[in-house]
């Protein structure tokens, strides 16, 4: 599940054989095809936890999906992470109130499925990819009126910021299903570096191929 439905289209046309478009509702494109003889679906998730929350919930509960691998972009906040590096989200902090619905009397720690996580780390090593594994932050805000809002998270060792992972991990936990998030660094929030729009939409081949290797 990439965020961008056009990235889902690109993946289907580039990596899958016999791909068929199975969803166009709200232009959230989804395709099912074959990768190395295995049936796989790729679908956009949209932006933010509310959008990811809806689509991943329906896939888990209404369409008998057992595992979802999110592939997305993220903004790095640690100095030793560079553009195009891969981050495997072992856990996901959040400033979202999404977890309120579960009625927990405390803070829930959304984490990846360990089996998928372990396979991803091993596959990345065999591919000699530059990968960091650790905690990310899923924020509800892309633009934030508070200055230096990421500084406390940076001090706590958070690797990068996205907008969807925590919601996906919570839904997976509640459904008793599997989830993993792979992120490509598209910008650095402290070095003021970034990839352009075309690089974000059509690039990220290392991340896509790593995700497909987990099937």
UniProtKB/TrEMBL annotation:
The encoding gene: deoD
E.C. code: 2.4.2.3
Gene3D superfamilies hit by this protein: Nucleoside phosphorylase domain
Enzyme category, top tier: transferase
Aminoacyl-tRNA synthetase found in the keyword field: no
Entry GO MF terms: purine-nucleoside phosphorylase activity; uridine phosphorylase activity
Similarity remark: Belongs to the PNP/UDP phosphorylase family.
Gene Ontology biological process terms from the UniProt entry: uridine catabolic process
Keyword Metal-binding tagged: no
Name of the featured protein: Uridine phosphorylase
InterPro entries linked to this entry: DeoD-type, Nucleoside_phosphorylase_CS, Nucleoside_phosphorylase_d, Nucleoside_phosphorylase_sf
A GO CC term attached to the entry: cytosol
SUPFAM superfamilies: Purine and uridine phosphorylases
Record keywords: Glycosyltransferase, Transferase
Catalytic activity: uridine + phosphate = alpha-D-ribose 1-phosphate + uracil
């Amino acid at each position: 599940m990439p965020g961008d439905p056009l990235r889902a289209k690109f993946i289907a046309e580039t990596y899958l054989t016999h791909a068929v478009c199975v969803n166009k509702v709200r232009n959230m494109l989804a395709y099912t095809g074959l990768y190395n003889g295995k049936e796989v679906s790729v679908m956009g998730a949209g932006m933010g936890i509310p959008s990811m929350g809806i689509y991943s919930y329906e896939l888990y509960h209404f369409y008998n999906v057992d595992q979802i691998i999110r592939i997305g972009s993220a903004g790095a906040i640690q100095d030793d992470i560079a553009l195009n590096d891969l981050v495997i989200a072992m856990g996901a902090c959040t400033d979202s109130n999404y977890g309120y619905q579960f009625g927990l009397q405390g803070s829930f720690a959304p984490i990846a499925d360990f089996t998928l996580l372990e396979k991803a780390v091993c596959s990345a090593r065999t591919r000699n990819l530059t990968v960091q594994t650790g905690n990310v932050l899923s924020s509800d805000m892309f633009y934030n009126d508070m200055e230096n809002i990421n500084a406390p998270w940076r001090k706590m060792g958070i690797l990068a910021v996205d907008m969807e992972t925590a919601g996906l991990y919570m839904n997976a936990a509640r459904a008793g299903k599997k989830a993993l998030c792979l992120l490509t660094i598209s910008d650095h929030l402290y070095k003021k570096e970034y990839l352009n729009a075309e690089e974000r939409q059509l690039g990220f081949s290392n991340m896509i191929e790593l995700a497909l290797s987990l099937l």
